[in-house]
Amino acid sequence: MEVFDPAIIVPFSMYKFKNFLNFKLISLKNEVHNIRMTDKKRRLWYWWVIAAVLTLVTGYYQRVTGPTYDKKIAFTHEGIEQKVKLPRSHGDETDCPVVLPIKDTTTTAKLIWRRFKMDEPYTEVEFQRTDSTLVALLPKQPPAGKLEYSVVIFDKAGKANAITGHETVVIRFKGHVPLWLVLIHVVFMFAGMFMSNITGFYAIIKHESFKKYAFITVVVLFIGGLILGPVVQKYAFGVFWSGIPFGMDLTDNKLLFAFLFWLGAWAFSIKKARYWLGILALVVLLIMYYIPHSAMGSEFDYKTNTLGTSKELRH
User: Fold this and answer.
1) Cβ count near 284 (within 10 Å)
2) Per 3-state DSSP, what percentage of the chain is helix, strand, and coil (rounded to 5)?
3) In this predicted model, what pLDDT tens digit does every residue of 15-57 receive, in sequence order?
4) Helix, strand, or coil here: 152?
5) CATH of the domain spanning 71-173, picked from 3.90.580.10, 2.160.10.10, 3.40.50.2300, 2.60.40.10
6) Which of 1, 52, 68, 277 could form a Cys-Cys staple with 265, CB 3.0–4.6 A?
């Protein structure tokens, strides 16, 4: 008959206790890891929000700057503060209306215009009253053709007021671009801005998803800027591309420059993430987008009847 040895209980109990401790330690480590991952994911949302806000701010800046957006003018007429928007771009197959929302029926006005950069006499056109507004037309020009014009209003005593001041307003004409194409192009360009921002932020925090997002950024910028962009330009000005090597269109060139930086950031990070390239690409794209849209863009040369690019940021 075997005799039970109580000494066996001690190592057996120690073995179970050791396993129990190991299990608890592993559980604790997993719990800490899960907490850290949860906190990390929560912190990522901050970057996404910042990226979205930065995209909206950049988009708004592009919307209100540049030489083709309406020129806002405030002036006083007959003791009343007036505000008008004078067009600097026109894309329909019609003459461009210039509208003055002046209700006073004793007020008259003249539209004075000529072709841009042409040493020729100005043409004067009387505004016509339509209900509570005064309207005059600028004649349609070839794609990228420009006119410079000024507006002079006269009160009931015949006193003139050049509301455009000593400088003329420059308007650029373009062909009709389908609305659906414009919307798709804008969506992709905003998506490209957003992806550039979030991918650049992922590079800053050295996130493991940087390479994946860099690839998405490259694809979105390529579709929006290098496929849809040229199609829009073909509709508007009759050419697909007027940047390097065919011209010096600043909008085309800055987009190409930013795209190449992101392409390089992704390509050189395929084997090993080079986060500094992502940060550099982010900075470059932001700088490019803070150059006003359409600056030094397509311009029709009336002297040679050819399409070129403007050499001025303002027109």
Assistant:
1) 20
2) 45, 20, 30
3) 555 565 566 556 555 554 444 444 455 578 899 999 999 999 9
4) strand
5) 2.60.40.10
6) 277
